[in-house]
């Protein structure tokens, strides 16, 4: 047994600068988490809420327009800097636009007061504009068994947010798509072939109902009467394309391709088939859905590979139509490559931080512009100490970050001909592990005298972290 004692003192955890070290973190907006379009009636009142985490507790503001812009809020729009609530007292053309929440917290750093700003995705406010048609009733004169289109005339702010309907007669009997009738995406009523009895429908009235409209307001359009010339001798009319158009739709959305044919056969019903680019007939499955007697093809969850030509063809008895091409253009705002989008990061003081920003456009679209960088909501070109930042074509590096001066939020913005995409990364800086004291690397033991050895290690780190020790 050794004639000396080794004492391992309890290890202490403390800050090497208790007065300066604080628990800090940049703001992080979690609501709203994604861009949204809000369609509101004129003079509507409503609120949008913004919520964020962060230490110290963030303060809120709202700005209209592009990031870094100076668009001020209308006198009918205000916000609460404590709760983050944006209040609209009315909606008119002046209030339309993009609104972003800015959450800011402040720190006392070595260079004075610093701050970090997180910016929300845009909330797009639009006023519902649907102008009703107040003209007199119109007559549509058509021969029996012939195709006709009855137009639905409205001025609409966004067709994706309205539902079209058709009503008939004094009792407003609804008209639905069936084997002869079809309502297209613009609200027009297509009748494959008219019958003498269609005059019994009376007045045909198109209308628009606004989705998610709490007031349930319906906007009526032009009304029509069918005047049908009777045909005594029925003849077979070969199928012929009357309506189709190429479609442009965004990635990850659904696209609706439409083909409307005319034609009549007293003994046979018309059949419509759709074919993919490789010539295979399309059937309803998880990706595709045939609708309205196969006049419409819905393609779901669009990816780049869905772009291209699709074909529709009608058959009526022994007669077949020519093949009609419908081109689907899959487009949209730039989207980020895998693992190349900005994301939040926590890093030790003194390290360099690199924020990636590499995006691409949809297939066959022009490539996106080089990224624009914003630091705490301000263009990087206007930042002091620009030598601290290194900008490359697909990344931004912040050199030797310090707490709290370099706790910040960085946003990159890329655009193409379709639109703009932004993504934010907030950077939190922690104090590194600092060894305050450690035992001598070499200690001499005299076996005859004995000695108490002190192997205590004292270290500090950021106040938000807990140190753990392990001896080997």
From TrEMBL:
<dbReference type="Pfam" id="PF07679">
    <property type="entry name" value="I-set"/>
</dbReference>
<feature type="domain" description="Ig-like">
    <location>
        <begin position="27"/>
        <end position="120"/>
    </location>
</feature>
<dbReference type="GO" id="GO:0016020">
    <property type="term" value="C:membrane"/>
</dbReference>
<dbReference type="InterPro" id="IPR013783">
    <property type="entry name" value="Ig-like_fold"/>
</dbReference>
<keyword id="KW-0732">Signal</keyword>
<dbReference type="InterPro" id="IPR007110">
    <property type="entry name" value="Ig-like_dom"/>
</dbReference>
<dbReference type="InterPro" id="IPR013098">
    <property type="entry name" value="Ig_I-set"/>
</dbReference>
<dbReference type="GO" id="GO:0098609">
    <property type="term" value="P:cell-cell adhesion"/>
</dbReference>
<feature type="domain" description="Ig-like">
    <location>
        <begin position="239"/>
        <end position="326"/>
    </location>
</feature>
<protein>
    <submittedName>
        <fullName>Neurofascin-like isoform X2</fullName>
    </submittedName>
</protein>
<feature type="signal peptide">
    <location>
        <begin position="1"/>
        <end position="20"/>
    </location>
</feature>
<dbReference type="Pfam" id="PF13927">
    <property type="entry name" value="Ig_3"/>
</dbReference>
<dbReference type="InterPro" id="IPR036179">
    <property type="entry name" value="Ig-like_dom_sf"/>
</dbReference>
<keyword id="KW-0677">Repeat</keyword>
<keyword id="KW-1015">Disulfide bond</keyword>
<dbReference type="InterPro" id="IPR003599">
    <property type="entry name" value="Ig_sub"/>
</dbReference>
<dbReference type="InterPro" id="IPR003598">
    <property type="entry name" value="Ig_sub2"/>
</dbReference>
<feature type="domain" description="Ig-like">
    <location>
        <begin position="334"/>
        <end position="428"/>
    </location>
</feature>
